[in-house]
Amino acid sequence: MSIEMTPRQTAILSCLVKEYIQTAEPIGSKMLENSGDFNVSSATIRSEMHDLEDMGYLVQPHTSAGRIPTTKAYRHFVDNLAKGDIKITREAVEKIINRLDNAWESPDKANRALAKLLSDLSGAVAITNITGREDFYKTGISGLMELPEFREFNQMFRLTNLFDEFEDLFNTISQDFFGPNAGNISWPFEASRNNNDIKIIIGEENPIREMGNETIMLGKYRLPQNYVGSLTLIGPTRMDYSKNIGLIKFATGYMNKLAEEGQRYLR
Asked: Contact at 8 Å (CB) between 144 and 235?
């Protein structure tokens, strides 16, 4: 029987996740007292954090006095992001529109532009593919190496291996997101016309055990010449979810808009 969080525990967890995303350091009760609007003592916050740990949302690394979120905490955080929390800057909007407009002459060029854009804007690995082809474009691995999670040699080695072998892993990931017929999606991809939802798998939810420390976001969209594309964004579980969801939703939605305009023109 699962125990429901109280409103205060929900607020504490949300604040802790946001702080950890920004700092990559274990979060203590004093930091939450200073950063949140809880109107309670750090001792009360510490007690609530202990309860959240018992419920599986937090873990205490080594001998640190602070706590870090678990996969369960990130899932709760993502599932409860309000529409207003999904943000994209005006600068990012302008970059996406300009680059995609200039790359819309071919599916390959559009896919490469999308991967480069989202990797640059998110700091994550971006991998694009044209459905039905073994035509992957991968970028952004060097940016991940700058993050604290990947500075140790064994973590870097593991990630670069996964990056190199992504083509072999893609079917497993895609089927987990979209079902057994994921690789057979063909035109017209009706779901893309009005729906640019993305699929998100976090940490230990991953069907690929070696990627238990990463979050994967995957979406599909329309491309020039009646092709369908897929985007896979890979970063640490500590990624900026609201920002990255906003980037993917806007970019794939704009791709669908360009494709729809092209279809109207052909009619």
From this structure: yes
